[in-house]
Amino acid sequence: MAQAAIRPCRAEDCRQVVRLIRELAEFENLSDQVKISDQEFCEDGFGKDPFYKCLVAEVPPECCSQDGHTIVGYGLYFFTYSTWKGRNVYMEDLYVMPEFRGKGIGKKLMSAIAQIGLEQGCTQMRFAALDWNRSAIAFYLRQGAVDLTATEGWHCFRFEADAMQGLVVGEPGSHQGSTPV
Amino acid sequence: MAQAAIRPCRAEDCRQVVRLIRELAEFENLSDQVKISDQEFCEDGFGKDPFYKCLVAEVPPECCSQDGHTIVGYGLYFFTYSTWKGRNVYMEDLYVMPEFRGKGIGKKLMSAIAQIGLEQGCTQMRFAALDWNRSAIAFYLRQGAVDLTATEGWHCFRFEADAMQGLVVGEPGSHQGSTPV
């Protein structure tokens, strides 16, 4: 069986990657949260001030998926920063189509992101996973990842746009005082 | 009492911000993880390819801290990306010195980061908090934040540099197959 090639995503691949983004969200039972359009995704990654970087896994045409796709996985990442340890690479998404799993494609994508991070002077690679996705978590732990929620108690939080707007218009003086903020 | 002014961090403030970074890590009982030097921090934020952005809270000299400091808090952030919702702003650190808490400085810093995020087209502001830091979490929830670990089951993970190196040199074929990677 032909190997999947890992290469940077190009603008013309965006539609295929958005297809995979939707598949991943469906797998995570969170597809109602997907609001991005093909066009926005392309502008955000390939405009003059890109917000992300992306690798794709591509198989030869003769090995395409049942529905004719040759881009069968992707890893999306960007650079972040730890005030404790400096530069980080953040793996936002890692996904391989079900029919192409078990062939090491996910690990190749993750390895390629780690290599890019090391070349850029990053000392950590961070990511998030859903607690019920036990086979993925077992895979990550086998590769040496640390679950910071389990070991140190970190929780992920989010303000949606309306809450951000509330923060901006709120009365700063109404804050009741708390630690450490 | 004079208000704290919120303004962008300048290169000459880096030493003061690193002082606050160490204070925050001590509060979090994780100060052994702080490896950054003043110089690295300054290069990473004020070199030709900055990895973060930072706001500081500054009080007038007559309101300085007991040990003579006028920079009494900081909020460090960068832009990230959600493949579901597009541009995000990530609040990596938010800290106010204990003797200046309860005056709304933390909320002013957070509000300023939210405003910058909205101006840049971000639809979310994300951050992480330690589960035992209940007063901080209560503060964030009052402002409209959602705890994604509690509500959706997201866990934070990290590969350290040695594990990243292991990913790079590992045999891709040794992967046992897992979902969704």
Task: Tell me about this structure.
Chain A has 181 residues and is an alpha+beta fold. Chain A has a domain at 5-127: Gcn5-related N-acetyltransferase (GNAT) (Aminopeptidase), CATH 3.40.630.30. In chain A, 34% of the residues lie in helices and 27% in strands. The longest helix of chain A is centred in the middle third of the chain and has 15 residues, at 105-119. Residues 171-181 of chain A have low confidence and may be disordered. At the A-B interface, helix 1, helix 2, strand 3, strand 4 and helix 3 of A face helix 1, helix 2, strand 3, strand 4 and helix 3 of B.
The CATH superfamily of the domain at 5-127 in chain A bears the name Gcn5-related N-acetyltransferase (GNAT)
% residues in beta strands of chain A: 25-35%
Strand order of the largest sheet of chain A: 1-2-3-4-5
Helix content of chain A: 25-40%
- Large-scale geometry of chain A: globular
Short description:
Chains A, B: Keywords: Acyltransferase, Transferase. With 181 residues, chain A is of the alpha+beta class. Chain A has helices at 14-27, 38-46, 105-119, 134-142, 148-152, 161-169; strands at residues 5-8, 53-58, 71-82, 86-96, 124-130, 146-147, 154-160.
Task: Considering the chains and any ligands shown, give keywords for the structure.
homodimer, 181 residues, alpha+beta, Aminopeptidase, 5-stranded mixed β-sheet, 34% helix, 27% strand, globular, disordered C terminus, Diverse_Substrate_AcTransf (chains A, B), acyltransferase (chains A, B), N-acetyltransferase activity (chains A, B), transferase (chains A, B), GNAT_dom (chains A, B)
